[in-house]
Automatic annotation (TrEMBL), chain A:
It is found in: Cell membrane. Its cofactor is heme b. One of its GO terms (molecular function) is metal ion binding. It is a multi-pass membrane protein. GO terms for biological process: respiratory electron transport chain. Keywords: Cell membrane, Electron transport, Heme, Iron, Membrane, Metal-binding, Transmembrane, Transmembrane helix, Transport. This is Cytochrome b.
TrEMBL record, chain B:
Residues 1-21 form the signal peptide. Gene3D superfamilies: Lipid/polyisoprenoid-binding, YceI-like (2.40.128.110). SMART domains: YceI. It comes from the Bacteria. Residues 31-189 form the Lipid/polyisoprenoid-binding YceI-like domain. InterPro entries: Lipid/polyisoprenoid-bd_YceI, TTHA0802/YceI-like_sf. This is Polyisoprenoid-binding protein. SUPFAM superfamilies: YceI-like (SSF101874). Keywords: Signal. The keyword Signal applies.
Amino acid sequence: MPALITNSTTRYGWAAIVLHWLIAAIFIGQFALGFVMMRVSSQRTAFELIQLHKSFGFLLLGLVILRIAWRLGNTVPALPRSVGRFERRVAPLVHFALYAFQLALPLSGWALVSVSMLEIPSVPFNLFVMPDLPLAESDSAESFWTSAHWYLAYAGIGLVALHFAAALRHHFWLKDAVLTRMITPSSDHNAE
Amino acid sequence: MVARIFGFAAVAACLAMPVFAAVALSDAAGSYTISPAGSSIRFSVGKAGGGGLAGAFARFKGSIRIDSSNVGRSQVNITIFPESVGTGQRRVDAFLRSDAVFDAANSPEIQFRSTSVKRTGDTSALVTGRLTARGKTFPEKFTAELAGLKAGTIRFHVTGKVLRSRYGMDVGTPIYSNVVDFDMTLTGRRR
């Protein structure tokens, strides 16, 4: 077993697990940061928080692309037997939607800063200049992408809540390995 | 810039030779009030990836006094009202006026008081002075180039660089440069 990095048919490897939790932390953190940065009264703090939000957004986009590539090039572990027929149909749809939101949120944010008439450069973590997407700048385009980003954020966090509730249900109610196999690959608890 | 100087020299040579060749101090000497109509105070701040943020102050006042016997004793005083900043983007203007940058509500004036004027050429001078913004004062240097002298009116093109971080305005660095480039045309009318 090559150091449990890759997935097998019964469990997730460390790469998938680390990417899952890293992206989860950034995704939820970005939601909180986005919420706060739009409400602070100091314009200076708001500016700095928005730049931080952009930095983490680009980091998220990079990690999500890596994650999707990893997922497509790796075995996907089968669902434990305890998972019922309804969930077998719905879970993959929710997971697909979660991936779609992970991509759509940073992309819509990138579009938003690209079309903004404010023309504030994106310099993730002050490391390098991230070019804008080739979209025309206008106030109407900015308000469109601002709304899109906002709705995607709330829908996305709702989906995360659903996903989280399902994981807790599996762990505490059904007492199966759905949650624990996303925490460590070493346990031999996959009833397959 | 070089082209501009040469162009300027050529125009000066053709049109204003008698005035500029030896700018007789006696001609220019006197006290002037800066006239907003013929003046502008523009600035720009470079940004990461090229381009920059450019704007101007619409309201300012000041005076220029050119000493009749000694240019070095000349004096320039300018007061800028940062509330009047304009960049063409309302949100940027509001940001600049806020306590993130100028804090115009609490610091309604930016002042420059010259401390020395050194003539550096027939029509140019280096003006050193004390710039006060947001309660902080530092010495700054500006280059002044005589751009016109007619009966009762004197015009200077003034340029200089100011480090904004020293005045508590470092917000946005390093995405936006710490260096603010000033480009002013100051027209004085003899009092």
